């Protein structure tokens, strides 16, 4: 997800604790009612018949209508509304099917989707998150429906592997991933030049070494310029930790998703590494745990030389808030412990068809249309989002852009940030879920060993429910 979506998702996860406690593919466009056989090579005649057939189909579809819900993306609500207005018009022109759409404010999305998954008003097609939770609370009647046939038709190989888990329950698909988000390292090129550094760090040792060279302090030892900060708005460190744990070779949950997997040397090392950046190496300020700490502002004002975990929409933030920083920073693939292997996380969200739809085939036609490379590229451009589709991410729009191309490279070294279990919306609920509490406590200087032990017990209880 993009940076704004991530911020809202923090709030949504906290709300979700309460809300969750309450509680034959037919292609209408490609197929025709007339079986046209070319027996004499009369291409023009066949072409005319196909056009006539498509016209008949569109006329037959004029009374068909589906409803689509999409979250709001971009800096203003009009961006999502204008996009949906344009693409629904194209869809109607192509198929004759009407689409009513609603763009949801992120602060209302969780409530609306929870109600939709428990018998309330629901769309035919939904831009979902927490898919596993909604599928579980919806049971056999509500929530997202299984669409293995549609996924097979569209093709699963075109999608970035790490994004697929957020569209599945077990081995079954209940959605198709579209928007995605990953995190990279930012560095101030002027600070690097001043310190004699010519390229970004590749591993943890270099990250600490660079951080020390870049950090500046006053006569009393107080940091005046941080060598490294985390992208940790509102003192949230869980997503940073997911990336660092990955870099150390560890994982949050077992492969079968039934128990924790970070009470290990890799888990302890990753959390100790984060704590040491503040309390041992002194390259990040202790005030980083203050909820008012603004990492974007720190970096854009020149008070930090590197920022760990930036999203693709950071450039839009810089252009809006700090135009003077243009060409003074770059993005780089995140370093890992050894310089090899996965070094970041990704987030994705699926488009799903709801079980309550009255017109499954029309809903499927919309999903196929929406998930086409053409529409997905347009969505990426308008919303400043990355895409789960590798073919879209290989478009020159991404590959030839010095900023976006780094994110394309980073997607080759990622693991999923959210875990595909229904309890995840409780496990990682901010600020009081087990993982956010543990990460914040450790960054404040608490014992890594004790916090891990307490958190493992709490999470395993949730997983056993």
UniProtKB/TrEMBL annotation:
Signal found in the keyword field: yes
InterPro entries cross-referenced by the UniProt entry: Bact_solute-bd_prot1 (IPR050490), SBP (IPR006059)
UniProt KW keywords: Signal
Keyword Signal: yes
A Pfam family of this chain: SBP_bac_1
Signal peptide interval: 1-29
Region Disordered, residue ranges: 39-60
Extent of Polar residues compositional bias: 39-53
Protein name, as recorded: Sugar ABC transporter substrate-binding protein
């Amino acid at each position: 997800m993009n940076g704004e979506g991530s911020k809202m998702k923090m709030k949504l996860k906290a709300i979700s604790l309460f809300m969750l406690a309450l509680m034959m593919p037919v292609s209408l466009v490609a197929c025709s009612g007339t079986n046209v056989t070319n027996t004499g090579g009369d291409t023009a005649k066949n072409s005319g018949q196909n056009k006539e057939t498509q016209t008949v189909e569109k006329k037959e579809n004029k009374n068909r209508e589906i409803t689509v819900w999409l979250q709001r993306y971009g800096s203003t609500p009009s961006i999502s509304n204008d996009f949906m207005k344009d693409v629904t018009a194209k869809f109607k022109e192509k198929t004759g099917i009407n689409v009513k759409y609603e763009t949801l404010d992120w602060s209302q999305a969780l409530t609306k989707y929870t109600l939709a998954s428990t018998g309330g008003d629901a769309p035919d097609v939904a831009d979902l998150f927490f898919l596993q939770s909604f599928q579980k609370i919806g049971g056999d009647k509500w929530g997202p429906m299984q669409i293995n046939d549609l996924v097979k038709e569209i093709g699963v190989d075109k999608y970035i592997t790490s994004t697929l888990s957020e569209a599945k329950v077990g081995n079954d698909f209940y959605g198709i991933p579209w928007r995605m988000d990953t995190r990279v390292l930012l560095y101030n090129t002027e600070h690097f030049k001043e310190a004699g550094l010519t390229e970004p760090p590749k591993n943890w040792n270099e990250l600490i070494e660079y951080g020390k060279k870049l950090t500046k302090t006053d006569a009393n030892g107080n940091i005046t310029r941080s060598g490294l900060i985390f992208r940790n708005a509102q003192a949230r460190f869980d997503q940073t930790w997911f990336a660092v744990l990955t870099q150390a070779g560890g994982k949050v949950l077992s492969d079968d998703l039934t128990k924790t997997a970070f009470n290990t040397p890799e888990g302890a090392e990753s959390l100790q590494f984060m704590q040491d950046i503040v309390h041992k190496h002194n390259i990040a300020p202790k005030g980083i745990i203050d909820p008012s700490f603004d990492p974007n502002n720190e970096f854009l004002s020149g008070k930090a030389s590197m920022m760990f975990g930036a999203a693709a929409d950071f450039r839009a933030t810089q252009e809006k808030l700090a135009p003077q920083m243009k060409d003074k920073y770059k993005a780089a693939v995140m370093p890992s412990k050894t310089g090899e292997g996965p070094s970041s996380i990704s987030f994705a969200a699926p488009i799903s068809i709801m079980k309550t739809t009255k017109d499954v085939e029309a809903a499927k036609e919309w999903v196929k249309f929406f998930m086409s490379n053409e529409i997905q590229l347009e969505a990426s451009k308008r919303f400043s989002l990355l895409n789960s589709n590798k073919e879209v991410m290989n478009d020159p729009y991404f590959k030839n852009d010095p900023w976006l191309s780094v994110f394309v490279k980073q997607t080759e070294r990622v693991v999923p940030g959210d875990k595909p279990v229904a309890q995840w919306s409780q496990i990682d609920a901010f600020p009081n879920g087990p993982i956010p509490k543990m990460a914040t406590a450790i960054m404040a200087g608490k014992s890594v060993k004790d916090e891990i032990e307490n958190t493992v017990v709490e999470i395993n209880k949730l997983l056993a429910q």
